[in-house]
Write a structure and sequence with these properties.
Elements: H1 6-19, E1 22-26, H2 32-42, E2 45-48, H3 55-61, E3 64-68, H4 74-89, E4 94-97, H5 105-116, E5 121-125, H6 126-132, E6 139-140, E7 143-144, H7 152-162, E8 165-169, E9 173-176, E10 181-185, H8 197-209, H9 214-234, H10 242-252, H11 255-261, E11 263-266
C-alpha cells in the first residue's frame, strides 16, 4: 500500500482524467442521470447498460463495473450476476453498492449473493454494511440510522472474510481492507438531502479502481468526492442545485482545492 494523502489522491485523479476509463453501470432509475453526469465531470466515460444480453459485450470493452441494487427486478438481478461473473473472469474490477440491504428479503438475498461473488470494493452506508455483516438495526428503508464509525468493525470483518476493500460512507468516510483503515473527512451536510449522490459516489469509486489498486483507488475516490461536495455545498443555501454544483466542483478540482477541503488519515499510524 503506497503512502496515502490528498496529494496521492490528486495524482490518481490526474491519471483518471488522462485515461478516461469506460465505467459500466447497472444502477437504479433514480441515480442514472446524476451518476452519468458525475462521471463525465470527473473525467470518466459512463455507460448505463442493464440488459442481460449485453453484459458480456460490455465486459469486453469497459474498464470497470458498478452494480447498484437500488431498484431491483428479476431481470436486473440476472444481469447483475451475469455482469459480475464476466468482469471477474476478465480480471477487471467491479464495485457493489448494496442500496437498502436490510430493508427487504429480496435485497438481503441479492446483496448476499453478489457479495459472495467477491466484488473488488463494497461501498455502502453504515446501516448497509452492518446489515451485510449480520448486525440488526441501522437501516430505515434505504437510509442509515447509524453513524459511519459504528460500522468500522463490521466493515473490517467483511473485508477480511471476502478479501475485498470495504468503504463505509457518511459524515466521515472509512476505507478498510481488514488490516489497514483510512479515515476521510470532508463533504457537506447538504449531501444526504440530495438523492442519488451516494449512488454516484459508487460510480466514482468504479472510475478510480479502473486506474489504480483497489485500496488506494477507493481512498482517492472518497477524498475527491468529499472535497468536491464541501466546495459545492458551501456555495448553496439548500440542496436543490447541489448535483450541478458538485459536477462543477469535480470538473474544476485541483490539488490545492482537494487538500483544502478534504483530509486523509491512516488510523493507528
Amino acid at each position: 500500500m503506497q503512502s496515502l494523502s490528498t496529494e496521492t489522491s490528486f495524482a490518481l485523479l490526474e491519471k483518471l482524467r488522462a485515461e478516461r476509463p469506460l465505467v459500466h453501470n447497472i444502477t437504479n432509475f433514480v441515480a442514472m442521470t446524476v451518476s452519468a453526469n458525475v462521471l463525465l465531470a470527473l473525467g470518466a466515460s459512463p455507460a448505463m447498460a442493464h440488459a442481460v444480453e449485453e453484459q458480456q459485450d460490455f465486459a469486453a470493452i469497459a474498464s470497470s463495473l458498478v452494480v447498484n441494487i437500488g431498484t431491483l427486478s428479476a431481470p436486473w438481478i440476472e444481469a447483475m450476476k451475469t455482469a459480475a461473473g464476466h468482469y471477474a473472469a476478465a480480471g477487471k474490477p467491479w464495485v457493489l453498492d448494496p442500496v437498502g440491504v436490510g430493508a427487504t428479503g429480496l435485497r438481503n438475498t441479492t446483496a448476499a449473493d453478489l457479495l459472495s461473488m467477491r466484488p473488488t470494493v463494497l461501498r455502502g452506508n453504515a446501516g448497509e454494511v452492518m446489515a451485510l455483516a449480520g448486525m440488526a438495526g441501522g437501516v430505515k428503508g434505504v437510509d442509515s440510522t447509524a453513524g459511519s464509525s459504528a460500522a468500522i468493525d463490521a466493515a473490517a470483518g467483511l473485508a477480511e472474510k471476502f478479501g475485498i476493500v470495504v468503504a463505509v460512507t457518511g459524515e466521515t468516510d472509512y476505507v478498510t481492507d481488514g488490516v489497514h483503515t483510512v479515515e476521510i473527512e470532508g463533504g457537506h451536510e447538504l449531501m444526504p438531502l440530495s438523492t442519488a449522490l451516494g449512488c454516484a459516489l459508487s460510480g466514482v469509486v468504479g472510475a478510480f479502481v479502473a486506474v489504480a489498486p483497489p485500496f488506494e483507488a477507493t481512498v482517492a475516490a472518497l477524498a475527491t468526492y468529499a472535497a468536491a461536495g464541501k466546495i459545492a455545498g458551501d456555495l448553496l443555501a439548500g440542496p436543490g442545485h447541489l448535483p450541478a454544483e458538485l459536477c462543477d466542483a469535480l470538473y474544476a478540482l485541483d490539488a490545492n482545492r482537494l487538500a483544502a477541503n478534504a483530509s486523509v488519515t491512516v488510523m493507528g499510524a
